[in-house]
């Protein structure tokens, strides 16, 4: 450690990665673009459906007219992967917020020494939150081409799913970095 530096590098890494992960996961959860459906038979050639876990939007690429709240005529929202994502993504966000509060109490840059045990516990919470969002993102990706869509339409991964993955990975890495605090705690006791 550098002289005068109170906060270990691993804690700083955790405190940088986890809030970034939270923002990405929040965007991934709320934005309606886990999957894009295009080239739908009997529809305008430039129509794209964007399906999220809460909403379906349609957009005409030529005019950029966008309409959300589209009816779910194929039972998309009834699919297990979508229902799991609806449950686990918000749960992950809540656990991330709680983990960040605990991390702030453990790291406490304004104290003479950080509370290593508290920081380590926050790392476990943030690691769990990352796994809670990684599971639905992975499940949805696995089922992406099996989820209901018009026959012969083109399916691609949407940006919300990518952001959910990135956010999950950042939370997992940040959580792991904070769990290194247990090492300091064990050395002290």
UniProtKB/TrEMBL annotation:
Record field: transmembrane: 12-31, 84-105, 117-139, 159-182
Signal sequence extent: none
Cross-referenced Pfam families: PMP22_Claudin
UniProt keyword Transmembrane helix present: yes
GO cellular component: bicellular tight junction; plasma membrane
Membrane topology listed for this record: Multi-pass membrane protein
Subcellular location: Cell junction, Tight junction; Cell membrane
One GO MF term attached to the UniProt entry: structural molecule activity
The entry's keywords: Cell junction, Cell membrane, Membrane, Tight junction, Transmembrane, Transmembrane helix
Annotated PANTHER family: CLAUDIN
Family named by the database record: Belongs to the claudin family.
Full protein name: CLD23 protein
């Amino acid at each position: 450690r550098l002289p005068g530096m109170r906060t270990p590098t691993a804690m700083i890494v955790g405190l940088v990665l986890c809030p970034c992960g939270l923002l990405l996961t929040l965007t991934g959860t709320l934005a309606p673009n886990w999957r894009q459906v295009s080239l739908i038979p009997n529809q305008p050639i430039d129509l794209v459906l964007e399906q999220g876990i809460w909403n379906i939007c349609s957009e005409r690429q030529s005019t950029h007219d966008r309409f959300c709240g589209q009816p779910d005529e194929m039972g998309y929202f009834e699919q297990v992967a979508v229902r799991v994502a609806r449950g686990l993504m918000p749960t992950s966000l809540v656990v991330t917020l709680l983990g960040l509060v605990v991390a702030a109490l453990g790291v406490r840059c304004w104290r003479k020494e950080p509370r290593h045990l508290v920081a380590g516990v926050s790392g476990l919470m943030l690691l769990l939150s990352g796994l809670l969002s990684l599971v639905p993102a992975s499940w949805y990706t696995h089922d992406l081409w099996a989820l209901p869509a018009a026959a012969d339409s083109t399916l691609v991964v949407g940006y919300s799913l990518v952001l959910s993955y990135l956010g999950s990975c950042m939370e997992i890495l940040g959580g792991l970095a904070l769990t290194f605090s247990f090492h300091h705690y064990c050395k002290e006791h």
